[in-house]
Amino acid sequence: MAKTIRETIEDREEVWLSPYACRSALSAGRDEPEEPCDIRTDFQRDRDRILHCKAFRRLKHKTQVFLAPAGDHYRTRLTHTLEVAQIARTISRALSLNEDLTEAIALGHDIGHTPFGHIGERMLNSLCEEGFAHYTQSIRVVEKLEKDGKGLNLTREVRDGILNHRMSGHPSTMEGNVVRYSDKIAYINHDIDDAIRAGMLTESMLPSELTDILGHSVRERLNALIHSLIDNSLGQPELSMDSDMEEAMLDMRRFMFNTVYTGSKAQEEEGKARNLIRRLYEYYMGHPEEMPEEYLNLVWIHGDSWSRVVCDYISGMSDDYAIHTFKKLFVPRSWEY
Fold first, then answer.
1. How far apart are the C-alpha atoms of 54 and 150, rounded to whole Å?
2. What is the value of pTM for the model shown?
3. Alpha carbon distance 15, 278 (integer Å)
């Protein structure tokens, strides 16, 4: 019997991938076993499931740094995700790792993020009885919230990479570690680009001791960081950068937190965003029946707490929809006759 296209791809992986790469045919599998696809590997199927789910589409109207930006060229959570995926695939290809696994993790890594970026995340964490973090919420989205409570039934490797993409995470695969690095490389550099576009920074305002190492433009910095990661990781079982390059990257991240992410013009509306999230949470805790039935079923059928489910509903909102809902609930409308 002739081999399927999927089997042919899996055979190619055996030949071409690094010994440290994760091979599709050796995946730890899904919680609910499925018949394999004749065309796509398991990791390709995961990528497609993430790409076509509702939570992914909502990322286009979720804040990256600038709340509900009016300009077309500011990053959103979706464009950030695409930039992470592009950087991660470039690194994975250079290191002969599994690009499909890398891409699936990258596309799903922020799928549980809140409206209004980390402001929304911190506010829900202070309100939810069980706490809230976007990386654990991303797992909840793909395991429980998508497809009307059925979840996407992703492979264990993809879920592990999504859960562990944060700075302190420890992914079990090289591909997961590629996304972990790529996330930092992407957001540090594109957030500098957006801050310069907004007039909050100029290139000359960046610390010279860092730009002398990383580069003097977004292009130079991306090139330097990606090359450092590739050059130090070729043929190695773990990812690493030049120590001075990685230290400079982390120092630039701290500079951005102090200059842009907190207490800057970009965050002038932070108090309003926090109040909006809090008011929505209090309202739906008092009126849970006004949430869609799929969320009510999480309590009635699956036994989740109301606090958890209200946070599920609010965290799934886009910036625009959260603002629209707040206005509908709390802002008086003109009398129509």
1. 13
2. 0.95
3. 54
